[in-house]
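User: Hi! I'm working on a homework problem where we have to compare a predicted structure to a textbook description. Could you give me the structure for the chain below?
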Amino acid sequence: MSKIMLTRRKLLVTGAAGASSLVLGGCDAFDFLSQNDSHARAVLEKANDLTYHAQRLLIRNGALAPEYSETEIRQGQRPNGSTDPQTNEYLTLKGNGFADYRLAVTGLVERPRSYSLAELRNMPSRTQITRHDCVEGWSCIAKWTGTALSRILDEAGLKPNARYVVFHCYDKYDDNAGAVPYYESCDLIDARHPQTILAYGLNGESLPVANGAPIRVRIERALGYKQPKYVHTIELVDSFAHMGRGKGGFWEDLGYDWYAGI
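Assistant: Happy to help. Predicted structure tokens:
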């Protein structure tokens, strides 16, 4: 494990639980609690549930993540995790400037959809200057521009049993089973939050490959690993049982919290 550090949220959780020795590592090197430490895991899961329900109440009351002025952008958005996917499909898309890119909307929807990057850019957009908080402990303020995810969901029309939005990505990460495609998810409350966007612009320019081109998700009330990059498919589901290890995301399958609100 290359780094061991407490995040703001984990510090609060462990302090409240009286378990100050618990730590969470960074996105690139995972060495969380051992499988035998069931009591500590149970404490964190209860704290996570409390945070989840408290934030759900705040969001229903219209709470937004803080937004900043352009003068507070002090540096470029720091790339992290995978920064240049090497799958053949992605390399082909990158080679022609993503002209052939399509974002699919599938699963529990009434009208499956498919959007080109140009179509997404031609939709009404939202620009927001927000702070990215990484689980490794660093933060970065940047300006993001994109299409509201809620608009895409409305165009597709959700079936009554749809509960979660799953984002499937071009990048791959190594776990014990080898290289697997990255995926992440959120509930419908986060998906429909006004600051949740499919970002194609960063700091007034097209989104760079290192930061997730052509499309990355911004869920501004969550930690960085909930902001998947290189997204090619949005799938509406009623559970996570049929994907990965059933936890709702690549890092969650390895032990991270599914809900990572800030």
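For your comparison, note the following. The first helix runs from residue 8 to 17. The radius of gyration is 18 Å. Good luck with the assignment!
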